[in-house]
Fold this protein.
Amino acid sequence: MQKLKDIQNNTSNGRSVLVIGGGVGGIRAALDLAESRRDVVLIDKSYSIGGLMTQLDRTFPTNNCDLCTISPHLSEDTRQIHLDLKPMTQLEELTGEAGNFIATLVTEPRYIDMDKCTACGECYKHFPKAVRFTPGLDPRAPTCMRYPQAIPYSFSIDMEKITDIKALQKVCKADAILPDDTQKKTMIEAASIVLSTGADLFDPSVLDNFGSGQFDNVVTGLEYERIMSASGPFQGDLVRVSDRKRPKKVAWIQCVGSRGINKADVPYCSGVCCMYALKEAMVTKERFAESIEATIFYIDMRTYGKDYELFFNRAKNDYGIRMIRCRPHSIVEDGKTRNLSITYALEEEALQTTEEFDMVVLSTGFRIPKATIDLAGKLGIELNSHNFAKTDHFNTVQTSRPGVYVCGVVESPKDIPETMVQASAAASMAASDLPCVVDESETEDEFMPEQDVSGKEPRIGVFICDCGLEIGGVVDVDKMVALAKTRPDVVVSQAVGYGCSSDSMSVIEASIKTNNLNRIVIGGCSPRTHETKFQDLMRRAGLNKYLVEIVNLRDQNTWVHFRQPKEALDKALKLLQIGISGVRKSRPLMDQTLPMNQNALVVGGGVTGMTAALQLANQGIKVYLVERDSVLGGLAKSIRKTIEGDDVGPFMAQLMDDVSAHENVQVLTKSIIVDHSGVPGRFTTGIQTGLRMNYMQLNHGVTIFATGALANRPDVYGLGTHVDIGTQLELDALIEDEFEKIKAMNTVVMIQCAGSREPDNPNCSRICCQAAIKNALRIKAINPDVQIYILYRDIRTYGFYEDYYQEARNLDIKFIRFSLDNKPETWIENDQVSVFVDDVILGRKIQIETDYLALSTGMIADDETTEDLAMMFHLPRTLDHYFLEDHVKLRPIDMSVRGIFIAGTTHSPKTIKESITQAYAVAGRAQTMLAKKQINLGAAIAKVDETKCAACLICVRACPFSIPFINEDGYSQIDPAKCQGCGVCAADCPAKAIQLLAYEDDQILAKLDGLFGGLN
């Protein structure tokens, strides 16, 4: 019987932000708040955080290992002194108002001391039925953790299934069993709430036509992910559930339970299903056998995200995935072979075809569970007709109750990058209700004093990760461990499984102390994602963080050579030797720190830039808002209405007034950026401004690019040759300004993908389908008798935009599909515009005489602007000239240069409300830097040996950042506060007078010795 402990009142600690839900959205929101010096409590009802993303095998469009991508992100919570993580905890009651909530939390007993538990698995080994874990297809239930690097890294016991408590305590070597653990109730003061509980995936077993739950070889998309996962039931081997044989033909059926009108269907689109089906099909072909035939049955292929159309093209052209536009009705199983038959018909053919497959994957979308509906009632927030959180159309994180914000799938169906953006936006809004308290004496971590290893002989520890099948499934880890033991100065060599897990890192830290190690080699994943974790480990162990060497066995070896295990092992051994040789020459280094400039520069005065500037200014941050036009507003001020029916004009007018009047915003119109220098946290940007283009310099700590995109006007379908041929943007204004002309129209034709999804502009512009449907519905409201034809390739009304698509069809707006190879044609005769298009249903070409032809032309990147800024700020761009973010999934608005962020249509095409969400998000991300008093520049800076310098000026000319100069003593000088650590000067110096710290000559030569066996 559980006992309820007395309520623990936590109000003495002051107000915090309560984040409900520990998926990637909740984690991102909590981290942003903690990094901006706000206290945050993160609760999740599950035993570990991570949510749905931790169950995925790969993520699109990079097809990276998902666990490897997210594990460093998850572990950040343990490094945040402002973050309190409470698993197995739910909200019981919320009272009060914004800025002064009282939240009552209930935490279920874990019966495990998380500080002692090492997740050794002995409790499961002896008491497997007491482990509370439901891993889907895995009948073995290897651990209570959903994934190998679970946070917190600790088991959970179901005491009701334990008959001998003393025996359970006896098997636990860590003495971590708490048999008297009880339910706890806690009250906290919260200034604001962030709801990020996500959603469930639809269970298709309620449908009787697809055989889910009846036929072994019919699985859902998530079950297929678990089959392919190294931590799944078959250790990453793709086999059929029925007979453990590898399938030769796999089919995916899209929109199962979505976009339908049947009993168990929902009308909306979940937005991610097309992409994850493409990903699964591509990974199947790539990892298991090119001979496997992959087929996708779909209605509309909705690859509307940034570079997603390129992903779709790769699937078709490079991987040979069959794309069949059809919605099959049912699946029939062969009782003997367990094979599955699908009968389908194509639009262009009158006959049905029956085809047999070995496996069928059902692509299912999101559903809001009853628990979330009940939680919304406790929070006092409204839900929409689909039971998702109802939000303001111009602020997608603001709920109906002030002080309660949402992010992720609980607000609407969305992909991981959009969830991360919304999480940062929600964190930014939630932070507005809680002042930032900066304690200059506080540190991110409490480290023990650093040992002085100068003059000591190297004592090297080598620790090699297998990462499930990511490394260990390709190369022999034991052979690498054995080789490392034979190398000079190696004191310890061992395999550590998932090296970035808390348990493995504890093992490494203990080994450092026990064996008096002074240098470490980690054979595992990319230093780009994992180096900071291991550097922190070194500091906790009392060593300088630059005495660790990361050998990238995954990205640079097993990922790219997974079909060549023998050669991959040879390369792995060489990489390991390089790391061991190089770490011998590693030296303790000191990070360079500088005071943080607390100002922000926002480039672009459209809806995105103004929103970001206003949000930062409201937090007391000085903002420079630079706009090249004479007035603020950008492209959004020419849009009249949103698809939801909101007037854009009044909203924009109010936003412009608020920005112009704010005391913390300096608006600089008719201004262009001409130069840029400095380091993250201390940037200096030169602009020319005003009628006379006077030059001035702006000092700022962060930069936000919101320069927008351009309305595309391609030379297609007669655009620009006739008054009645225009774009959707021009039709938007026509509907508002010329009511009588719209009233008099008999026929309107719209052509989608005009100038998009073609070789010279390969991506989807995202906004076109909903813009066409928006205008079509507005025309119908004015003139119900008008005939409207929308000619399309795929209708991409993702999320709740599907409701408007359904409304348009109900109003008899006609949709005619065409292909890229057989596009519509326009003809003008006697001032009459006609459109010719092949109708696949009728099987012939039809002519439509129209009163107005509206072309959905979408957006294109402002190539000239992004090119100039990319050169000055040293930023990457995509092939279609948008800025390229640092990480497509986890850092979608951060640039590769720290302290620089992107938002709005300079990132990629998007709607006004999506741009506004990104604006709030970049404001939140900027605050994570501006909340700090100092900026850490790292230790990799160039240093000049004045005794060797000949003042030849080569370094002065070579440096892309114009840092070196000849000082009054006659030799080159490099300011460590400005050095970017690129190493160009060190490479070009003919006298070898410049060394790049952490990459010095003797270190590079030592690595070459490791590669060539000392022959160098």
Summary: Residues 747 and 851 are 6 Å apart (CA to CA). The two ends are 71 Å apart (CA to CA). The longest strand covers residues 184-195.
